[in-house]
């Protein structure tokens, strides 16, 4: 694979991550009021712990595509047994990662449909579902064409979309602190719901919220998924990860603080999907709304691109490692996983039918907990088994970091997994939890089929060799 990306291009593609807060502002506020700001602070801190570990792994294994790549390499081991448990675990982690990023396309297509329905009078009588479906078809097709010749094209689009999304988001949020719109009492007087108790049930709910927060606030590890395409992985990967993390500090903490402090808890709960419009209206008047609408649409397209590229790379990596059928890793002449992109797009057009972004997010957070937990265990394992190289030849996390990573791994599996399962059942019923579990378990037959496919291919190659020798 050609190494054509620098860290700024990798950052441009990953800049959809700081905008993942948008569907969660209202949901988190409805659950824990002003304490939602604390959740984002804790989650961002966790993100830096995890991504320092992932940055080291990505530079130790520069040919692997981020989380789905190096976890499969670490757990593959030296055995020739294709059906060994460790290979299954590595592949299952990559599958969880794919499931975490994949539904991003549906979530933000639904939000785009919701905004179009509410903001443009001509669409008021058009069902949100059809607007979301049409938005998905147009955006998915457009992004596949943009990235047809490689992620460099997506990086250029990322630069443009970042200017039209992150810059206005920063301006609108910061302006509330200087226009007199922000009131700290909206936070301090409404820190937690009156019926909140620090009992076991509420702590499990809090773990579930942290799992959902992680899905958004820790996801800048996607900058490492392009490791095989960076010109200088050992320098480019840490830079892209660190700078994207700085952006996340602002969006997840400051934006949530600005929304709660300016709008108040009740106003956010009343408009859970579009609090940024209200924030823009209060802080900047009618012109603020005119700024916010294109900002929101640009940010959602940027996030959809980040999700499409991340999930397609994960699927390609699994197919190349023999953990998914080979057809799913098929690339075009530019080594772009075009088959994966098309399948992911079709799958998300089906997901749009669920209609509720929070339902889809909660289900996919199950996959992200699995992926992070196993990946962090892989980091701890690699600290003893990884190839030894000179310290100046790769990015190295601070000494003892493997123990912090191990603690975060245990937090993901089993604690976050239990918490997010409970959130799914409480808020969205068994449907959401079952969707998440079914998609995760779907990996089992696909993995078994891929192994049978590999076995048949080896038999055919052996027979051809015998025939040639005769």
TrEMBL record:
Localisation:
Cell membrane
Keywords annotated in UniProt: Cell membrane, Membrane, Transmembrane, Transmembrane helix
Where do the coiled-coil regions begin and end? Answer: none
What is the top-level taxon of the source organism? Bacteria
Which stretches are transmembrane? 20-42, 95-116, 128-146, 158-180, 200-220, 240-269, 289-311, 332-354, 360-380, 401-426, 432-450
Give the membrane topology, semicolon-separated if more than one. Answer: Multi-pass membrane protein
One family name in Pfam for this protein: AA_permease_2
Question: Which named protein is this?
Answer: APC family permease
């Amino acid at each position: 694979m050609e190494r054509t990306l620098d860290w700024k291009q990798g950052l441009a593609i990953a800049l959809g991550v700081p905008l993942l807060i948008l569907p969660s502002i209202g949901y988190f506020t409805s659950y824990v009021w002003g304490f939602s700001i604390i959740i984002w602070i804790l989650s961002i801190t966790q993100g830096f712990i995890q991504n320092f570990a992932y940055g080291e792994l990505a530079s130790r294994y520069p040919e692997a595509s981020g989380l789905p790549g190096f976890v499969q390499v670490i757990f593959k081991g030296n055995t020739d047994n294709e059906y060994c448990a460790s290979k299954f675990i590595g592949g299952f982690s990559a599958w969880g990662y794919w499931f975490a990023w994949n539904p991003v396309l549906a979530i933000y297509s639904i939000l785009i449909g919701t905004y179009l329905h509410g903001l443009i009078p001509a669409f008021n009588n058009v069902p949100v579902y059809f607007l979301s479906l049409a938005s998905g078809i147009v955006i998915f097709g457009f992004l596949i064409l943009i990235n047809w010749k490689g992620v460099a094209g997506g990086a250029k689009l990322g630069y443009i979309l970042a200017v039209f999304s992150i810059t206005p988001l920063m301006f609108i949020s910061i302006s509330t602190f200087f226009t007199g719109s922000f009131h700290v009492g909206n936070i301090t007087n409404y820190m937690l719901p009156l019926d909140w108790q620090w009992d076991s049930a509420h702590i499990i709910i809090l773990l579930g919220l942290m799992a959902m927060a992680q899905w958004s606030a820790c996801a800048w590890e996607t900058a490492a998924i392009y490791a095989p395409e960076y010109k200088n992985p050992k320098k480019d990967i840490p830079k892209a990860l660190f700078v994207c993390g700085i952006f996340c500090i602002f969006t997840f903490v400051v934006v949530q603080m600005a929304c709660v402090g300016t709008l108040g808890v009740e106003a956010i709960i009343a408009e859970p999907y579009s609090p940024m419009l209200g924030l823009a209206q209060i802080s900047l008047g009618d012109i603020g709304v005119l700024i916010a609408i294109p900002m929101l649409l640009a940010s959602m397209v940027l996030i959809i691109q980040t999700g499409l590229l991340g999930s397609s790379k994960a699927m390609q990596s699994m197919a190349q490692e023999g953990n998914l059928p080979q057809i799913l890793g098929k690339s075009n002449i530019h080594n772009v996983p075009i088959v994966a992109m098309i399948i992911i797009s079709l799958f998300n057009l089906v997901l749009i039918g669920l209609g509720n972004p929070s339902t889809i997010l909660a289900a996919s957070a199950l996959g992200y907990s699995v992926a992070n937990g196993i990946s962090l265990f892989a980091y701890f394992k690699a600290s003893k088994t990884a190839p030894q190289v000179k310290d100046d030849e790769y990015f190295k996390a601070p000494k003892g970091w493997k123990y912090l990573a191990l603690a975060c791994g245990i937090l993901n599996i089993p604690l976050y997994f239990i918490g997010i399962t409970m959130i799914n059942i409480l808020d969205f019923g068994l449907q959401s939890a079952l969707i998440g579990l079914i998609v995760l378990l779907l990996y089992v037959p696909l993995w078994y089929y891929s192994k049978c496919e590999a076995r048949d291919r080896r038999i055919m190659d052996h027979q051809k060799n015998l025939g040639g020798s005769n």
